[in-house]
């Protein structure tokens, strides 16, 4: 069987003709397999959804319980038969519940990894390399300039700044699913034991993470109405990046703006966004992680999606690995 007969791009997303299902479709479809809960991958309105229990729960929290006609929970490592196609979910290390989807039929095995990273993250299971014929990789940070430093070193910079400026507040911009909880957990692992103040948009997901046994310590609402401005002197506040432009952010005392993202490697980008303390913390693989992962899968062919495809395709070719960009539309990862 040819790989392109097992999975192919369609306007709705990545489609498997023999199995008659889509992976992370961007439009409503009959049967959707979903890698993780970020909104560009997990959309509402499908007739049926197969995903890990955590991803189903996250979709329920974001879209309401009726986000799909029917749902089925995929157990990691357990194969499900869909119209004769063997489908297995494996951890992707991206956010809680994130999975790679392995699709196998007539001797051809393709792994669609969704979004992934290799850095250790206490808030989700680590990525598991799966041997396959074709590996579909993201390339959000697919340029050699992107090398993420150890995350605990980045968090140490916040704590150092907080100690240096005890009268100011530190506002950390972090995406609501995954990044925010990872930042909180990193603060805890670094020994920070004061309450962490959070924007309302993070409350439900953070509570959900805690219900799944991921300790985030004491979280308090980051609303200035509930206390005087001075109460937030020295506080660490976490909110979604979108909240930083509005009035909410201006209520804190002399805030130092921090932003946790892989894009913070690009100094210009931090500057333009008015970020004083850029934190290079990403939930996507950096260049080295992409390379290592491609090698570990042993795949003879690589399909590259959403990101800087050209450099990675070129690298594969130089290594003697067949590679091509897979042009899928509609993926603007919310969790970079
Ligand atoms: Zn994602």
UniProtKB/TrEMBL annotation:
Domain of life according to the entry: Bacteria
Keywords: Exonuclease, Hydrolase, Ligase, Nuclease
Primary enzyme class: hydrolase
Ligase listed as a keyword: yes
InterPro entries in the cross-refs: MBL, RibonucZ/Hydroxyglut_hydro, Xnuc_lig_assoc
Assigned EC number: 3.1.-.-
Gene Ontology terms, MF aspect: exonuclease activity; ligase activity; RNA endonuclease activity
Protein name stated in the entry: Ligase-associated DNA damage response exonuclease
């Amino acid at each position: 069987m040819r790989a392109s007969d097992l999975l192919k791009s369609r306007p709705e997303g990545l489609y498997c003709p023999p199995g008659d299902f889509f992976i992370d479709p961007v439009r409503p479809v009959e049967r959707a397999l979903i890698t993780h809960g970020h909104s560009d991958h997990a959309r509402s309105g499908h007739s049926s959804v197969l995903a890990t229990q955590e991803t189903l729960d996250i979709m329920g929290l974001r879209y309401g319980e009726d986000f799909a006609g029917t749902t089925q929970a995929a157990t990691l490592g357990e194969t499900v038969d869909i119209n004769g196609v063997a489908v297995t979910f494996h951890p992707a290390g991206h956010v809680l519940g994130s999975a790679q989807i392995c699709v196998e039929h007539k001797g051809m095995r393709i792994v669609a990894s969704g979004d992934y990273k290799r850095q250790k993250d206490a808030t989700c299971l680590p990525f598991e390399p799966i041997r396959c014929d074709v590996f579909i990789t993201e390339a959000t940070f697919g340029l050699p300039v992107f090398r993420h430093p150890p995350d605990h070193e980045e968090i140490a910079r916040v704590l150092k700044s907080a100690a240096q400026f005890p009268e100011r507040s530190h506002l950390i911009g972090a995406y609501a699913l995954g990044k925010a909880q990872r930042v909180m957990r990193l603060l805890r692992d670094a020994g920070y034991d004061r309450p962490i103040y959070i924007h309302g948009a993070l409350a439900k997901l953070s509570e959900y993470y805690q219900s799944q046994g991921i300790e985030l310590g004491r979280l308090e609402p980051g609303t200035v109405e509930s206390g005087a401005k001075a109460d937030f002197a020295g506080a660490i506040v976490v909110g979604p990046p979108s909240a930083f432009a509005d009035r909410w952010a201006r209520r804190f005392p002399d805030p130092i703006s921090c932003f946790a993202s892989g894009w913070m490697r690009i100094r210009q980008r931090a500057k333009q966004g008015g970020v004083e303390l850029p934190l290079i913390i990403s939930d996507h693989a950096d260049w080295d992680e992409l390379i290592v992962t491609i090698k570990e899968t042993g795949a003879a062919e690589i399909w590259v999606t959403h990101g800087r495809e050209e450099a990675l395709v070129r690298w594969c070719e130089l290594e003697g690995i067949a590679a091509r960009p897979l042009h899928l539309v509609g993926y603007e990862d919310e969790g970079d």
